[in-house]
Amino acid sequence: MLARLSEFLLPRRRAVLLVAVLLALAAGAAGSAVFDRLKTGGFDDPGSESGRAATELVERFGRDDLNLALLVHAPEGVDDPAAQAAGAALSERLAAEDGISDVTSYWLTGAAQLRSGDGESALILAAIAGDDNEATRRLNDLQPTYEGEHQGLTVEIGGAAMVNKELGEISERDAVRGEMIAFPVMLVVLVLIFGSLVAAALPLVIGVLTILLSFGLLWLMATVSDISILALNVVTLLGLGLAVDYSLLMVNRYREELAAGRATGPAVRATMASAGRTVLFSAVTVAVTLACLAFFPLLALRSIAYAGIAVALLSALVTLTVLPALLALLGPRVDRGRLPLLHRASSPTHDEELANGFWHRLSSFVMRRPVPIATLVAAGLLLLGAPFLNITLGTADERVLPESSSARQVAETLRADYDSGESQALNVVLPQAPDTSGELTDYATTLSELPGVARVDTSTGTYAQGSQVAPPDERHAAFAADDGVYLAVVPHPLPTPEAEALVDAIRALPAPAEALVGGQTAVNLDGVDAITDNLPAAGLTLLVTMYVLLFLLTGSVLLPLLAMLLSAIGLTATFGALVWGFQDGHLSGLLDFTTTGDVAGTVPVMLFAVAFGLGMDYQVFLLSRIREEYDLTGDPTSAVALGLERIGRIVTAAAATLSIVFLAFLVSDIVFLKALGIGLPLAVLMDATLIRGALLPATMRLGGAALWWLPTWLRPVHDRFGLREAPSAATRSTTEPAHAGR
Fold first, then answer.
1. Of 138-147, 234-243, 428-437, the least confident
2. Which of these, 688, 694, 696, lies nearest to 559 by C-alpha position?
3. What is the pLDDT at residue 600?
4. Contact 317, 237 (CB under 8 A)
5. Which of 34, 405, 501, 615 would bridge 219 by S-S if both were Cys, CB 3.0 to 4.6 A apart?
6. β-pairing, 516-518 with 153-158?
């Protein structure tokens, strides 16, 4: 297939480049509107108990969660006559807005729980109708009108809708800022790698084209499906990183073919037949890993799955079409702009150079002492990963935002200055009401006795501390409809762990009929449960699929197991650093974030999917080259040393550039993106150094020829579907074919 593709591309190189530029410009223009199409939020499970409760509330009772909070400050106190008049007018104005319901405020109700303890501020609460994205769009219209000064009052905006809005805005800003930082740094690194300005520019050109096309692709996907805005950061940076990685591999192989004496056309064809196949296989490997995120019902994770699959394959497509056309157009001019002190050949081409190369000498050293080195490195990685044993999965709340965030400031004020957590109210929906009002009264009374509960509102009245404190009135009548009832459980202001414990306590309490617990805390808790419940199926599917892919690559039934085991060991230090740095807070001062005592449940899943996929990506690079040497020599020890020497430098370069891309996450103001900014570069560097430099050669030396074992009955399968790279001219010139097949 790739041979036919190269034959098609070579005579049409200029046309291919023109079409690619036009498509990229069109995609970039369409992608400029992608931010308006992407969804905010995406951390809820629509099929969970809280999701069903929200559906019942809307369809049966016409109620939405209170997702908007106006914190109103009055310099003379909220009970000052002027403040009362202004507060009431502001409340009535908000209630008259389209798409706003259930407006309640201190000045309309006189409820003490809506007034701060010092009397200097009060709350106006409301529900914005629609999903997270509709709420964000409506809030964009409302914010300029209501935020700021109003007749002597100062208004701050908070609530779940504001949290989602600010998350989206920060994600959009960080995506652009991260790329602006990554590009110039990557250019410097690429110049150091190639020693040539032209060769260094090629991966960046492919990266720019991939990003522009990725924006267009996201825009197209967002028109037919819901895509979370949080996928934007991961997908664009992943697309850039993969495009640069694949380009590095291709440009290096092309220069290798030129150095061995091939002309431009044959060099491009040989590059496509060898490195091109590896690129295609690697892209499929990354796509398969990211596809496992689709097992999780959270929109944020599914969006990364769908968009990540598309962008991984797009990166390979651009690399395998545009880059060969560029190489064919440049020919030997790919080495133009040489920097004398930096320029070097793409890889060793003579036996003496191979034997004296760094990676050959390192791997030979390791393979002479495989047991102690493998034991020491594996033990060290497992020790670094030990903190992961104490991981606590939590939910992302407003503390993931920077301290300057309006939503965060409002939430912190509510916890500190208010007696009840009105914005944390839990909705307990009974789709079928109990047979008698007495059963409902007893249930409400029991709920009011739970630790942390300030009061319970229901159709039979208001309850607090085990007794009725207000009889039913017109307001309470709204809690019953269509043979169903719901109860509003209003807690005291609670930190997230205690609020989650209250959700568990309510669900554990016997109810007179089926009870569905909803509200923002329940939504967050159900999101974490959805992750843990679906992990086994996602993990098993990933392992089986990855095993099949690596079998097709290596032609061995044992090497795939070793490759996956090594990648998993390499991730232990990464997850240990995640817990040590973010859950335990040791990096909070350096990276400027608030420690919450847990890790958002989506972070380890995203980190594993991306890091494991990239780890296997590099395994594909390495194993394909080692297998090429093994097919030629039949010597498993020599194949490891030669393969690592031929590709070791370029894989190190790929790891360095990819790490720079992901380090751009550190500029984010969102805590879980900072966690990816630490975890992904660490995972890539661990894989590119300790795994590749020590564990891989040590374990392959211990396994020897047995690792390449292929049962006779499986050979036809691999011969039919397996990946076989054509040896490069450089390989054939330095290695006598002593072995072909197994």
1. 234-243
2. 696
3. 86
4. no
5. 34
6. unpaired
Q: What is the pLDDT of residue 520?
A: 86
Task: Return left, alpha or beta for 125; rule: phi > 0 is left, psi -120 to 50 is alpha, else beta.
Answer: beta
Q: 160-194 and 197-224 are packed helices; what angle lies between their axes, rounded to 10 degrees?
A: 160
3-state DSSP assignment of residue 739? coil
| Residue whose structure tokens are 């090594």 | 566
| Cβ-proximal residues to 125 (8 Å cutoff; 6+ apart), any chain | 66, 68, 69, 70, 102, 103, 104, 105, 114, 159, 422, 423
DSSP string, 272-294: IIIIIHHHHHHHHHHHHHHHGGG
Task: Identify the burial level of 421 via C-beta atoms within 10 angstroms of its C-beta, where 0-12 means exposed, 13-18 middle and 19 or more buried.
Answer: buried
Q: What is the mean pLDDT of residues 568-575?
A: 90
CA nearest to 373, candidates 29, 27, 702, 708: 702
- The answer to whether residues 50 and 519 touch, using CB atoms and an 8 Å cutoff, is yes
Q: Are 272 and 5 in contact (CB under 8 A)?
A: yes
Closest among 441, 443, 452, 385 to 415, alpha carbons compared: 452
- How wide is the angle at C-alpha 416 spanned by C-alphas 410 and 421, nearest 5°? 70
CB neighbour class for 474 (10 Å; exposed up to 12, middle 13-18, buried from 19)? exposed
- The identity of residue 529, as a single letter, is D
The pLDDT of residue 254 is above 50: yes
- Answer whether 0.70 is exceeded by the pTM: yes
Q: Are 377 and 694 in contact (CB under 8 A)?
A: yes
Q: At what angle do helices 602-633 and 230-259 cross, to 10 degrees?
A: 10
Rounded to whole angstroms, how far apart are CA atoms 6 and 1?
9
CA–CA separation, 463 and 456 (whole Å): 5
Percent of all residues in the chain with a pLDDT value above 70, rounded to a whole number: 95
Which residues lie across from 467 on neighbouring strands? 464
What is the pLDDT, as a whole number, of residue 1? 74
CB atoms near residue 714 (< 10 Å): 15
Per-residue pLDDT tens over the stretch 328-351: 999 999 888 777 655 555 555 555
Q: Amino acid identity of 706?
A: A
End-to-end, the C-alpha distance of the chain in Å comes to: 24
The DSSP annotation for 479-532 comes to TEETTEEEEEEEEPS--HHHHHHHHHHHHHS--SS--EEESHHHHHHHHHHHHH
Question: What's residue 502's pLDDT?
Answer: 95
Q: Which residue from 273, 245, 247, 272 is spatially nearest to 334, judged by alpha carbons? A: 247
Q: In terms of DSSP bridges, do strands 121-128 and 480-481 run parallel, antiparallel, or are they unpaired?
A: unpaired
Per the structure block, which two tokens stand in for 585?
């807070």
Mean pLDDT value of segment 498-524: 93
Which residues, 6+ apart, have CB-to-CB distance to 81 below 8 Å? none
Q: With contact defined as beta carbons under 8 Å apart, do 452 and 504 qualify?
A: no
Largest CA distance in the chain: 97
Q: Residue 579 has which token pair? A: 């817990």
Average pLDDT over residues 592-601: 87
**Residue 343 φ/ψ, nearest 5 degrees:** -65, 140
| Side-chain-facing half-sphere of 640: CA atoms under 13 Å | 28
Q: What is the mean pLDDT of the chain?
A: 87
**127-178 residue pLDDT tens:** 998 888 888 889 999 999 999 998 999 999 999 899 989 988 888 788 778 7
CB-facing half-sphere around the CA of 373: CA atoms within 13 A: 22
Q: How far apart are CA 373 and CA 120, in angstroms?
A: 66
**Residue 122 · residue 69 · CB < 8 Å:** no
DSSP-derived secondary structure letter, 115: B
The one-letter amino acid code at 75 reads P
Question: What 3-state DSSP class applies to 199?
Answer: helix
Query: Which tokens belong to 86?
Result: 């202004």
**Contact by Cβ (8 Å): 161, 135:** yes
**What residue type is 253 in one-letter code?**
R
Q: Which residues contact 254 (CB under 8 A, 6 or more apart)?
A: 267, 268, 271, 275, 327, 334
